[in-house]
Amino acid sequence: MKRSLMLIAAVLGSVAAGSAVAYDADWKRGRVYYRQICTSCHTAQMPKPIAPNDKVKADWAAYLQADKHAKGKETVKQYFGKPYRASIKATNQAAAKFAEVPDQDLLDDVKAFLQKGAKDGDAPASCS
């Protein structure tokens, strides 16, 4: 009986540990989102888009942590939210494609891409 209880506890513990595993960000999906959502908006609003290799990894991490966009007028996170994607999906195929992706997963994906594509990243990336 005692052995059975220990086995059950071990199984339940491994199931709980498996469900608590952190999301493994997909930098490739982040690259698609950044280039098709972020870059298209910045290109329309600014003279030039902001490329991942315009900043170093620490700068991108600080920017995302601060969660301030448009000189603090907006949050960064709102641009990864389902409501924002729904608002532009008629004119942006990527927004429609990623309509149901959890907001935090998408933000983590873009963060992974920015870290990889930063000036000091593994594969510095431009916007094209």
The arrangement of helices and strands along the chain is HHHHHH
Mean pLDDT: 85
Strand-residue proportion: under 5%
The structure class reads mainly alpha
Distance between the termini: 63 Å
Tally of individual helices: 6
Strand count, sense and closure of the main sheet? none
Helix content: 55-70%
Rg computed from alpha carbons, rounded to a whole number of angstroms: 19 Å
Please report the total strand number as a whole number: 0
Top keywords for this entry?
mainly alpha, globular
Explain how this protein is built:
The protein is an all-alpha fold. 58% of the residues lie in helices and 0% in strands. It has helices spanning 2-19, 27-45, 57-66, 82-88, 93-97, 103-117. It is globular, with a radius of gyration of 19 Å. Residues 14-19 have low confidence and may be disordered.
Can you lay out the helices and strands and say which pair or pack?
Blueprint: H1 2-19, H2 27-45, H3 57-66, H4 82-88, H5 93-97, H6 103-117
Short note summarizing the structure:
By secondary structure, this protein is an all-alpha fold. It contains six helices and no strands.
